[in-house]
Design a protein that fits this description.
This protein is mainly α and 148 residues long. The protein has a single domain, classed as EF-hand (Recoverin, domain 1), CATH 1.10.238. Helix 2 packs across helix 6 and helix 6 packs across helix 7.
Length: 148
């Protein structure tokens, strides 16, 4: 709650709960649900790095990332994702409007989740062929251990 109050997007909206929880979990060394001043300092540096990256992809300087900017960001980060997948992310995480876009908090959340699930996939894709065979429970275990 306190972290959410401390962080804002370019449109002055607070960071969403999911992103705050992801970041708290990342910087909470004691697993107490809290971060100390050192963890908070590290968290602010982490956010600044993401903000710098976000601003690189926000070509029109609107303070949010639209579909084409998101596609370019994924491509430059090394993700070969379809336009349909980017549209799905915009529909799930974007602001509701005729031209949906992603704010910084959701960009951080999406990128952290993509990185985490990609790492989990690569652990199973030892031959780097782009396909794995998983049981349903293995899949759920991958998701739960990486996303929660």
């Amino acid at each position: 709650k306190e972290l959410k109050q401390a962080l804002v997007n370019s449109n002055w909206s607070t960071f969403n709960d999911e992103t705050c929880l992801l970041m708290i979990n990342m910087f909470d060394k004691t697993r107490s649900g809290r971060i100390d001043v050192y963890g908070f300092s590290a968290l602010l540096r982490f956010i600044q790095q993401w903000k710098n990256l976000f601003q690189q992809y926000d070509r029109d300087q609107s303070g949010s990332i639209n579909f084409s900017e998101l596609q370019q960001a994924f491509s430059q980060m090394g993700y070969n994702l379809s336009p349909q997948f980017s549209q799905l992310l915009l529909a799930r995480y974007g602001q509701r409007s005729s031209n949906p876009s992603i704010q910084l908090d959701r960009f951080i959340q999406i990128c952290m989740q993509l990185q985490s699930t990609t790492d989990a996939f690569r652990e199973k894709d030892t031959g780097l062929v782009g396909n794995v065979q998983l049981s349903y429970e293995d899949f759920l275990t991958m998701v739960v251990t990486r996303m929660m």
